[in-house]
Amino acid sequence: MKYRKVTEQDSIYDNIESKSILEIITDINQEDFKALKSVEKVIPEIEKIIKKIVIQLEKKGRLFYVGAGTSGRLGVLDASECPPTFGTDPSSVIGLIAGGDNALRNSVEDAEDDFSAGWEQLQLNSVNSNDFVIGIAASGSTPFVVGSLKMCQENNIPTACICSNPKSPITQYSDYPIEVIVGPEYITGSSRMKAGTAQKLILNMISTTTMIKLGHVKGNKMIDIQITNEKLKDRACRIIQENLNIDYSDALNLLKKHRSVRNAIAFYDNE
Predict the structure, then answer these.
(1) Does CATH number 1.10.8.1080 belong to domain 218-269?
(2) Mean of the pLDDT values across residues 170-197?
(3) Active-site residue among 8, 23, 40, 81?
(4) Burial of 111 (0-12, 13-18, 19+ CB in 10 A)
(5) Active site residue: 47, 58, 112, 271, which one?
(6) Residue 110: C-alpha distances to residues 100, 144, 183 (Å)
(7) Are strands 159-163 and 176-179 parallel, antiparallel or unpaired?
(8) Given CA atoms 174, 178, 184, 189 in this order, what sign does their dihedral have?
């Protein structure tokens, strides 16, 4: 099969500007279901990636996401949510975006055309063979991402990709390619829609499952949650209360003393 940009094909909808608001959002919702089904089809590939990531992180490696535009922002978002949710070091999951942090808020579209810039960013983070690098690009041809994975492979760094076009260039440099084919977008070429939704779903699976397997969840609770506000303090107390079957006030006292859910439970269990 030759490389073809499904993400650039004409939408199956037309004259959408003449539709009512209800018609538009109903159509978009129907298209979003296609993203869900497309992700379901690639679950076996996602499983393989997670197994390798867990191995890499267990030997003190790191997980990198590399992307541009929407894809890059989603990678940075997923990486930035790991420390508060799972208590991980900010350096264990890192999101890199073409154009740097400025591109998170402002479009820096030409930055994605730099074939070497992604690898340069990875080198600044001392990327090595203990790490794992995932390139995220709906088109599968973004130079910033393709260049990053090419250089990773040349340096024996394991790689994966998430793209939405079959047989795209990025798959040539991916040890674990994920081709999540969502079809033409509601607005022709707007891959921030279904392709972006599919990327977010897959990233959720990857980071969440990895952190569960690394021991950051007990039962179904976040035992390494960072307690940074009153809402999270209350959640932490309830986790301790339910886990140890004690009063809320006792859970609060344990939390104040040990400053983390994990330590509070461990202290109580060792009494």
Answers:
(1) yes
(2) 97
(3) 81
(4) buried
(5) 112
(6) 12, 10, 25
(7) parallel
(8) negative
- Domain coordinates of the chain in residue numbers? 6-213, 218-269
* Block residue for tokens 């779903």: 201
For position 23, what pLDDT does the model report?
Answer: 98
Alpha carbon distance 271, 258 (integer Å): 14
Prediction pTM value? 0.93
> Which helix H or strand E contains 58, and what residues bound it?
helix 43-58
Active site residue 81: yes
CATH number (3.30.428.10, 3.30.70.2750, 3.10.290.10, 3.40.50.10490) of 6-213 reads 3.40.50.10490
The reply to whether 6-213 and 218-269 are identical in fold is no
Task: Give the Cα separation of 50 and 36 in Å (integer).
Answer: 19
Q: Is the distance from CB of 147 to CB of 172 less than 8 angstroms?
A: no
